[in-house]
TrEMBL record:
Pfam families: DUF4268 (PF14088). It comes from the Bacteria. Residues 10-136 form the DUF4268 domain. This is DUF4268 domain-containing protein. InterPro entries: DUF4268. It comes from Polaribacter pacificus.
Length: 145
């Protein structure tokens, strides 16, 4: 068991190690679409690469998600393990639309032996997500024009 301070230090070390091992500028929040962002997720039990749709306007939120659903089969060709969840609940209780690729190996941010495989997963899958976004960016943005 870790103290809060030890756990916080391990999380910081995890993300610092990832950044140093794979120095690259990721798309993440720079999609130029409000409430539409890519994220890396890593905690005590799981890791994933995510695309979160959480626009403050409910109609825009639905339009963006529906637009991605229309592209689902194209994304699944490159990433068959992708999961579309239209009611994903965040830790704070907020419900969002999340499209994500779970890391299917045993993982804990508290176990340094699992980090390297997770880092490699992050790079591979986020590259696929970003390529998909750039390929279909105009189509996705049509939902909010």
């Amino acid at each position: 068991m870790f103290t809060k301070e030890e756990a916080a230090q391990l999380r910081k070390e995890f993300w610092t190690s990832f950044g140093k091992s794979f120095p690259r500028k990721w798309l993440l929040y720079n999609t130029q679409i409000k409430g539409f962002s890519f994220k890396f997720l890593a905690n005590k039990k799981q890791a994933a690469v995510c695309l979160d749709i959480e626009h403050s306007d409910e109609i825009t939120n639905e339009l963006l998600y529906d637009q991605l659903l229309s592209l689902r089969s194209l994304l699944e060709q490159d990433v068959p393990e992708v999961i579309f969840d239209d009611t994903y609940e965040l830790e704070n209780g907020k419900i969002i639309h999340r499209i994500y690729i779970p890391f299917d190996q045993k993982f804990s941010i508290h176990n340094k032996n699992t980090w390297q495989a997770c880092f490699e997963f992050f790079v591979e899958k986020m590259n696929l997500f970003e390529f998909f976004f750039y390929e279909y960016e105009d189509h996705i943005k049509q939902a909010i024009r």
